[in-house]
Amino acid sequence: MINFVYRLTAPGMIEVHCEELRQDGQSVLLRPEYLSICKADQRYYQGNRSQEALKAKLPMALIHECVARVVRDPTETFAVGERVVPVPNLPAEEDAFIAENYLPSSRFRSSGTDGFLQEYVLSAPDRLVRAPQSVSPQVSAFLELISVSMHAVSRFERFSHGRRDRIGVWGDGNLGYITALLLRARFPAAELIILGTVEEKLSYFSFADRRYLVDRVPAGVLCDHAFECVGGMGCRPAINQMIDLTAPEGALALLGVSENFVEINTRLVLEKGLRLFGSSRSGVRDFADAAALLDENPRLGQYLESLVGGEVKVRALEDIHQAFQLDVHQSFGKTILKWEK
After folding, report:
1. Angle at 66 between CA 64 and CA 71, to 5 degrees
2. Phi, psi angles (nearest 5°) of residue 278
3. Helical (H) or strand (E) element with 319
4. Interval 217-234: pLDDT, tens
């Protein structure tokens, strides 16, 4: 069958490619239904990556957050018409100690390998997770981002000590919101403190115990552990404030992506015996755990609905450009593409 793939060939330029799609007896044929734009997609679309990175990655179909319908499954793992979430991480091997999302041999959709801006997609059945039943398909479209927070929270449980009375989250954007929401679900007795830069965005965190602007934190605030969900140019001040406001031997989770090196106060890290660990992307287990957590806690889905921002029906190439332009001006929430190509 002929498949139409929408590839970014240069910043702001998308071309349609017609390719033959051959389904074997081990692959599931999917039709994307709802897609969600990630900041990483925007960095490619806007050209906010190095020339070396753009040259190495493009041309490439964007989008790694998606929910799709099963069109055909010769493995009989899924029913035709069933809604599934494809995992963009594509591991080539297994390792007893290193997770699939950290293996250098793994490929990742929309980062060197075509993402989901396609009419149809082929996937191995073990790269698919049934969409949660308790949330809308628009929320399921960004289950990948939820799984990233789930992965970080799971690693936090492994790396942190057992005193979790006060947990701080730096970042008032989408990633900070989702991470804080999962922490609220996993550690309901903990005091949850949110620190951000925009008062209007902090107002969305109504489930938190305390919310502060980073330049108006009262004296005496101290967290047992902390999560950095800022990224970009804000990484440096956020991480250093976390170091200042985290108690000795606390764990600091770093989730935000920065294109630049970040200077941190290593002297205080050593003095306090802090543990800093990074988390990036996620694996199929994190997707399944995130979906299960949403189905077990329907109220989480109600909060996540507030992240559904603009929705663009994609029927022509121009609609894709419209969606990216809408998204770049959206300070909070996710831009959803309803794929009708």
Report:
1. 120
2. -100, 150
3. helix 317-328
4. 999 999 999 999 999 999
How many Å apart are CA 65 and CA 181, to the nearest integer? 19
Beta bridge partners of 251: 275
CA proximity to 268, closest of 289, 249, 290, 294: 249
Beta bridge partners of 56: none
Q: Which two tokens stand for residue 150?
A: 């789930």
What is the residue whose two structure tokens read 């109220």? 299
Structure tokens at 231: 């990224």
Q: Evaluate the CA torsion angle 316, 320, 323, 328 in order and state its sign.
A: negative
pLDDT tens figures, 21-45: 999 999 999 999 999 999 999 999 9
Decide: helix, strand or coil at residue 198: coil
Q: Count CB-CB contacts under 10 A for residue 340.
A: 10
Whole-angstrom distance, CA of residue 262 vs CA of residue 154: 25
Do residues 327 and 165 make contact, with C-beta atoms less than 8 angstroms apart?
no
Task: Tell whether pTM > 0.90.
Answer: yes
The SS3 assignment for 157 reads: helix
Q: What six digits make up the tokens of 5?
A: 């793939």
Between CA 236 and CA 261 the distance in angstroms is: 9
